[in-house]
Amino acid sequence: LILQAPADMHLHAPQYPMTGTGMDLPLIDWLNTYVFPTEAKFADPGYAREIYRRLARDLIACGTTRVCIFSSLHPEGTLILMEELERAGVAGYAGKVNMDRNCASLSEDTKRSMEQTEYWLDRCRFPHVRPILTPRFTPACTDELLAFLGDLARTQRLPVQSHLSENPGEVKLVRQLMPEAAFYGDGYDRYGLFGGAAQTERVTLPHDAMLSMPRSADALSGPGMAYFHGANIEYVKWDMNRQLSEVGNEILPPERQREIWHRYVLGVYEMQERLLTDFPDLLLENCAGGGSRF
């Protein structure tokens, strides 16, 4: 029996040393308290080499041979990550993170972020681990930086990864920072970072936990439908484990806790109904908690 090896489509390499820790805070506080201080250590090439070599070996040991992976904002550390993945036999995409606002303990100014991105891209010479542009997420990137990355994606035909609607507090912050945006993804779309034929063709935006928002579902279904029409896809597996990662909601009152999970499932079903309208023979498998299926 020959099976395809697992591919991890969303992985933060510099968070490997803190795996399983710091789960007591909501997203933004968790980033500032735990994640950014941890990622700052990867300014040290020696430390980056030690951790990334261990990570690459552990990925292969667990059978993961393909990744779409975030590095830190450090270009040298990102090159080390790509080198260690290549050496271990892991293929895929790795990206230097861009972040020029709202990250007190770990940030770069806009000009330096642009320069360091070009420096990193000029040195990417790996046959199986390729560069992917990586704006951390809208709260951490100014409009100027997003516009720069959108231009790079278009002119150099580079793929893009970021985050989308991971947490209600994050979505609220995006609304405050970009009040002119129709929805979270619109902040990427206006700079050519949301996918579609006229923009970069390859975009991955993990989490998408707010599919209950009609405008988000509408915007996601457009690039998604275009992708399905251009590819021979017969089977889709959807991870429904939001009850494990979204154990509560820091915005809603106590009596409305877990509402986000219910609304998310309804949003997923709506998206899948749209898919089946155009592709009635598509096989869908929704993965529930504990490995069950429905």
Structure in words:
By secondary structure, the chain is an alpha/beta fold. Helices cover 43% and strands 13% of the residues. It contains ten helices and ten strands. It has helices at 27-40, 45-61, 75-88, 110-122, 143-155, 168-177, 184-189, 214-229, 242-245, 259-278; strands spanning 7-12, 66-70, 91-95, 97-98, 129-131, 134-135, 160-161, 203-204, 235-239, 283-287. It has a four-stranded parallel beta sheet, covered by helices on one side. Strands 4-6 form a two-stranded parallel sheet. Helix 3 (75-88) links the parallel strand 2 (66-70) and strand 3. Helix 2 (45-61) runs parallel beside helix 3 (75-88), helix 3 (75-88) runs parallel beside helix 4 and helix 4 (110-122) runs parallel beside helix 5 (143-155). The longest helix is centred in the last third of the chain and has 20 residues, at 259-278. The chain is globular. The protein starts with 6 loop residues before the first strand and ends in a 7-residue tail after the last strand.
Give the N-to-C terminal Cα separation.
Answer: 26 Å
What is the averaged pLDDT score? 83
Number of strands: 10
Shape: globular
- Beta-strand portion reads 5-15%
What structural class do the secondary elements suggest? alpha/beta
The largest β sheet comes out as: 4 strands, parallel
Give the helix proportion (percent range): 40-55%
Strand arrangement, largest sheet? 1-2-3-5
Q: Which regions are unreliable across 5 or more consecutive residues at pLDDT < 50?
A: 290-294
